[in-house]
Amino acid sequence: MKCSDTSPEEDAGSSRVIAVVFCALLLDLLGFTLILPLLPSILDHYGQTEDAVYQSLQSLVDWFRDTVQAPTETKYNTVLFGGLIGSLFSLLQFLSSPLTGAASDYYGRRPLMMLTTVGLMSSYALWALSRSFSVFLLSRVVGGICKGNVSLCTAIVADLSCPKARTRGMAMIGVAFSMGFTVGPLIGAYFARRSSLEEVFYLGPAVLALLFSTADLIFIFIMLPETLRKDTKGSSVSSGFQETRDLLSPVALFRFSAVTRREDSPSKQSMENLRALGLVYFSYLFLFSGLEFTLSFLTHQRFQFTSMDQGKMFFFIGITMAVIQGGYARRIKPGHQIRTIRLAIMSLIPAFILVGLAWNLTLLYTGLFLYSFAAAVVVPCLSAQVSEYGLASQKGTVMGILRSLGALARALGPILASSVYWLAGSEVCFVVSSAFFILPLALLRRQRWSKEE
Fold first, then answer.
1. 427 pLDDT higher than 50
2. What is the mean pLDDT of residues 408-416?
3. What residues contact 267, with CB distance under 8 A and at least 6 apart?
4. Which DSSP letter does residue 262 get?
5. pLDDT digits (tens, 9 = 90+) for 151-164
6. Known PROSITE patterns for this protein (predicted)?
7. Alpha helices in 34-108 (DSSP H)
8. How many angstroms separate the CA atoms of 261 and 257, rounded?
9. Which of 31, 215, 228, 416 is the most buried (most CB within 10 A)?
């Protein structure tokens, strides 16, 4: 896949950068996802202690559970508690992602990649050493603040001059996500099961996460080139840090104010399109993450899924996404992203209706296949489309803001969706929520896409 306006050397350089980004992000995600299958057991483990922080958070979860009339069953309580931890992590990402992106526009992508990786290593070290819930929670806070590799990887891909290479790169980032979230949890569960120390059964996965992160740091140091051009490096220091409120205020983030501050900022029409894409990204992930969170409630209630059944379901989703991203999404041509995003979001409406009303596994997995198709396509295509906007010295800021909006959506979506689920029932939650996917579709149709079909 070559660009007509680039040399063979530039094409080869782009392919090398994409390969390095893929491997670095995969190492990062393998370490990050090891904890996912262990989180319920870890929370149950700390629930047997007298940790004051745990008891305070448990009181908050109990209040929320009583408010939305969720059952007092242990499994639901654990999922809600895990959702609270996940929302905290996402809120920290919401705060840190635009700052990390802006910093990379000034100092370069490579130094920030290494710095955030060192931060993640610190969080995994805290996890390995934790013998109280307070220390464990601190490890998640450090991880949430330092988890900047994803937005930095998208910024690195956005630095590529070839639109086709950017599309391919965003798709390969999606493949790394699918592989990491499919393989990582299996490895984490395996090493936890092999542990001979019952009280610290998570020690093996924690140490392995630290090793993955260390390997990632070494790999980045040796293999990752600096993609931010020297003629733009350092030019955005005033736009990145002089008005910090533009990188922290939700209103300013939705307006991409940090991008418009400079005199040579994109045109009015380009900024309108960029803001529309930000709203599409937020509304899509707000609805999607909420229904994704309640999926485990539905399958446990309606089909009596065990933890193993849940694992098999998410393995099916991960493998399907990886195949679609590797075989289809990375071949989408520039100029066809908006059309593809529309198609994928439209497929979510029948997907969640089928899941919400499914009375047998055939209907459930049919809906999950459509769900997997949309999950494999929407974020990579939106990221590739957004990467077209902003100056070369603003790509980190643009992609960091986009990542921040997604983190805010993932923090808020599950709270609303689980409330509707327990107050109105699974059918109402999934069917009504699916209808709201019309909103991002309307936003896409309202804009004039000069670079599209």
1. yes
2. 92
3. none
4. S
5. 899 999 988 888 88
6. MFS, SUGAR_TRANSPORT_1
7. 39-47, 52-68, 74-107
8. 6
9. 31
Distance CA(24)–CA(152), nearest Å, equals: 11
Spatial CA neighbour of 401 closest among 88, 237, 235, 155:
155
Structure tokens at 426: 């699974």
Q: Is 280 helix (H, G, I), strand (E, B) or coil?
A: helix
Q: Dump the DSSP string for 357-405.
A: H--SHHHHHHHHHHHHHHHHHHHHHHHHHHTTSS-GGGHHHHHHHHHHH
* Position 105, amino acid: D
Helix, strand, or coil here: 51?
Answer: coil
| pLDDT of 451 strictly over 70 | no
Average pLDDT of every residue of the chain: 86
Amino acid identity for residue 163 in this structure: P
| Neighbouring C-alpha atoms within 13 Å toward the C-beta of 401 | 33
**Do 256 and 271 form a contact (C-beta atoms < 8 A)?**
yes
For 61, the token pair is 């979860």
The model's pTM: 0.88
Between CA 414 and CA 422, with CA 416 as vertex, the angle to 5 degrees is 95
Alpha carbon distance 326, 304 (integer Å):
33
The string of DSSP codes covering 303-362 is: H---HHHHHHHHHHHHHHHHHHHHHTGGGPPTT-HHHHHHHHHHHHHHHHHHHHH--SHH
How far is 430 from 443, CA to CA, in rounded Å?
21
Quick check: 447 and 373 in contact, CB under 8 A? no
From residue 287, how far is each of 254, 412, 420 by CA, in Å? Answer: 17, 9, 12
